[in-house]
Amino acid sequence: MATLLSARQSQAGWRDYLELTKPKVVVLMLITSLVGMFLATRAGVPWTILVFGNLGIGCCAGAAAAVNHVVDRRIDALMARTHNRPLAQGRVAPVAALTFALLLALLGMALLLAFTNALTAWLTLASLLGYAVIYTGFLKRATPQNIVIGGLAGAAPPLLGWVAISGHVSAEPLLLVLIIFAWTPPHFWALAIHRKEEYAKADIPMLPVTHGEHYTKVHILLYTCVLLAVSLLPFVIHMSGLLYLACAVLLGARFLQWAWVLYRGTRPHAAIRTFKYSIYYLFLLFIALLVDHYLLLNL
Q1: What's the predicted TM-score (pTM) here?
Q2: Is residue 178 domain-shared with residue 127, that is, in the same domain?
Q3: 122-156 CB burial, b ≥16 within 10 A, e <16
Q4: SS3 44
């Protein structure tokens, strides 16, 4: 067994280490970070901050993801969605993954300190520790509210992008954080319903496992209503204009429709479809913020 494990680990390639960083998740995070940067200024974003600032944030996010792979390797091996991950399959050793995570974190912090400012670097470090240590190491196994509490770490990228440009925290980026914070529960709980049996098998106290699907669907519907209301606040505080308002209403109404369909149980595979739509929702909402920002500048 030890020989077989060693052979598998010797076959680890660059794709395995890339997978440790959860690149699709990091790309979505960097989109929100980039939007935060552009919303923070009426002038252009310096290319050094645009490139190296986002690279630093991405490296730290990838480091947190790699730690998540290490901590969850036994759970990942039990779940169909994650059983092919590098650590679950033994292609990458835990020590190698942690070393990789440390190097990524150090590189990310160095880039942020060199090309942005100290506040951005420390906020990014706090986000990294919040996800890798507090959420992955404790909350995920401790409470069915793990996603709600731990979602704050994942909601930080637009704040990081804003602070990288402005050097200070203000109400506008905190509102962007609030949007992602409200988006996280319906996003993950929809997936948790779809993967309920796997989470139960892995003994992870996700809300559908501990409180049942109906209870979870009610809370998805309620949080989606909260999200729709929160998403309108950028217009209310004159941070954005009518274009964003129209997009936020349309995108939010569609999300609410999916939440209602999921609650009623009238369509097959509604949970995974709601989950997939939630990803498009966040991407398009932040793109609408960006487009509206530059439209206002040109008026």
Answers
A1: 0.91
A2: no
A3: ebbeebbbbbbebbbbebbeeebebbbebbbbbbb
A4: coil
* pLDDT tens string 103-120: 999 999 999 999 999 999
Residue where a domain stops, chosen among 164, 195, 227:
164
| Residue among 231, 207, 204 nearest 219 (CA) | 207
Angle between helix axes 118-129 and 54-71 (nearest 10 degrees) is 20
Nearest to 67 by CA among 135, 126, 124: 135
- Residues near 5 by beta carbon (within 8 Å), at least 6 away in sequence: 90
**Taking the CB of residue 103, how many other CB atoms lie within 10 A of it?**
13
In the chain, the amino acid numbered 298 is N
Closest CA to 92 of 219, 5, 221: 5
> Could you say which of 141, 164, 187 is where a domain stops?
164
Query: Is pLDDT at 233 greater than 70 in this prediction?
Result: yes
